[in-house]
Amino acid sequence: MKILVINGPNINMLGIREPDIYGSRNYEALLAYIRGSAAEAGVDVDCFQSNHEGAIVDVIQDALGKYDGIVINPAAYTHTSVAILDALKAVRIPAVEVHISDVDAREPFRQISYAGMACAQKYAGYGFEGYKLAILWLKENVNN
Ligand code: CA2
What we know:
alpha/beta, Rossmann fold, 5 helices, 5 strands, globular, binds ligand CA2
């Protein structure tokens, strides 16, 4: 099974500020955590991060025929991007939404998720572990 993990804007800045919300580990540590989780689960994983909405749309489109599942933390684009929602709907690759923080307990604007409308499952507020839970969910629920 091949899984693509997509992280949106500012996730590459993890650990630099707001450790109370996002923890003190950096993006490199997140990548190591995701790769370790995938290896434990016996699935192949590629990771992609961008601060640009169109680049995220491009990578979702390019995933068609190459990946069995997508784990996506669209970061701030979660709450604004119909383009990412449409891309996920277009490729119809099973997708799981992840947020490091508990978005549903934060500001009202963070409780709106466009991308989530095309995702089969959501893990929010579990820190890095949400990515592992998402990988395991895809492994259990997607036939390939
Ligand atoms: O909780 C999450 O994973 C979020 O997707 C993270 C986004 C935020 O806009 C979403 O509402 C929830 C923010 C990404 C990281 O932002 C940073 C802010 C300050 C310092 C470092 C990273």
